[in-house]
């Protein structure tokens, strides 16, 4: 058994009690677990969509994506580059496999969050070149 938290134990939105660098800054203590949860939920949602049963991961992912949509890339301080890339990859994989009925709302949310993640990846690439 590992000491890692399960995906259910990770925050689904911005925690209010974690310290932040400034009122408008989202630090890695917030972004890393949220990006980790996004990656896990996108992977589970892909499996959920292949089955005719309940889509709990899809519902959770939609709520998390709604929270991520409100993030301003300029407000993110030092997001974990590995988690950023993993979350983007999981969301791209899910978007490519969405059945037609699920593409509308979920697909639009995924695209918005992918834009955010790509902005963060571009910013990290430019920092690495400097």
Report the biggest beta sheet as strand number plus sense, adding barrel if it closes: none
Q: Taking all residues together, what is the mean pLDDT? A: 80
Structural class of the helix and strand makeup? mainly alpha
Bin the strand percentage. Answer: under 5%
Shape: elongated
Order of helices and strands: HHHH
What does this structure look like?
The chain contains four helices and no strands. With 130 residues, the chain is an all-alpha fold. It has one domain. The termini are far apart.
Question: In terms of topology, how is this protein built?
Answer:
Layout: H1 28-50, H2 56-69, H3 81-97, H4 105-129
Helix pairs in contact: 1-2, 1-3, 2-4, 3-4
Main attributes of the structure:
130 residues; mainly alpha; 61% helix
Short description:
The chain is an all-alpha fold and 130 residues long.
